[in-house]
Write a structure and sequence with these properties.
Layout (H helix, E strand, L loop, with lengths): L5 H8 L7 E5 L5 H8 L5 E6 L2 H13 L6 E5 L4 H4 L8 E7 L1 H8 L8 E6 L4 H10 L2 E10 L2 E9 L9 H6 L9 H20 L6 H20 L2
Parallel strand pairs: 1-2, 1-4, 2-3, 4-5
Antiparallel strand pairs: 5-7, 6-7
Helix pairs in contact: 5-6, 8-9
Keywords: Methyltransferase, Transferase
GO biological process, one term: methylation
Organism: Spiroplasma alleghenense
């Protein structure tokens, strides 16, 4: 399917063969569920979206591609629909294409009906990793992908096994990504440094946020400068 973005293709690749029941939250036009169903990668996909127009387009797309038997399109906010269903088990739940604040609101409805998450935020992933740490969950996989000039982090959260997040650095950069620093990693954080420096220039000296941004900048410099000097 040529309309699938590099980010969605990478997300699809992180779904394991034994993860047969998948949910895609904020599915938009259901491109990812259709891709999974057409490729027979999964047995069944729940494709949900809060907005009526994408929901209707998703329904039509599922029908047009002939995968109505393996995809249910749902008009519902976040994970709320999962709480209303008995005997539901989702092997892997995808949440992508929105900011970390919105994702964290969605994750407030997490339950033991969901075994793992694949999360790709449009903003910094640090708050998501903090949630993982607080919940005592694990990071199974972390990858970077460039899509339309933007470098995205994609993390797979497993409730039962994987890497634990223990330090502030791991929360910021990711326990797996830190161990496999590549050019995408450096490019992403160099861009983030530039953003923070612009913010610092415009912040009043007495602004309390300035101290937080300076700490963040120091942490970023520690890793990017070390790698760039090698």
């Amino acid at each position: 399917m040529k309309f699938l973005t590099p980010r969605l293709i990478k997300i699809a690749s992180l779904i394991k063969d034994d993860e047969e029941i998948v949910a895609d939250i904020g599915t938009d036009h259901a491109y990812l569920p259709i891709y999974l169903a057409k490729g027979h990668k999964v047995k069944y996909v729940y494709a949900s979206d809060i907005n009526k127009n994408p929901f209707k387009v998703a329904q039509q797309n599922v029908k047009n591609f002939g995968v109505s038997d393996s995809i249910e399109v749902i008009n519902s906010p976040g994970l709320e629909w999962t709480l209303e269903r008995e005997n539901l088990i989702i092997d892997c739940c995808v949440i992508s294409g929105m900011g970390s604040t919105t994702i964290l609101e969605i994750l407030k409805k997490d339950s033991d009906k969901i075994n793992s998450y694949i999360i790709s935020s449009n903003t910094l992933v640090e708050p998501i990793r903090k949630w993982v740490k607080d919940k005592k969950f694990f990071i199974e996989l972390e990858v970077l992908v460039e899509d339309n000039g933007i470098i995205y982090e994609i993390i797979k959260v497993n409730k039962f096994a994987g890497k634990k997040i223990k330090t502030k650095s791991q929360t910021c950069f990711g326990p797996i990504l830190m161990k496999n620093i590549n050019q995408l990693f450096i490019d992403k954080w160099v861009k983030e440094k530039e953003k923070i420096n612009k913010i610092l220039i415009n912040l009043p000296e007495k602004d309390k946020k300035k101290k937080t941004f300076k700490k963040q900048l120091k942490l970023i410099n520690k890793y990017t400068n070390k790698e760039m000097s090698q």
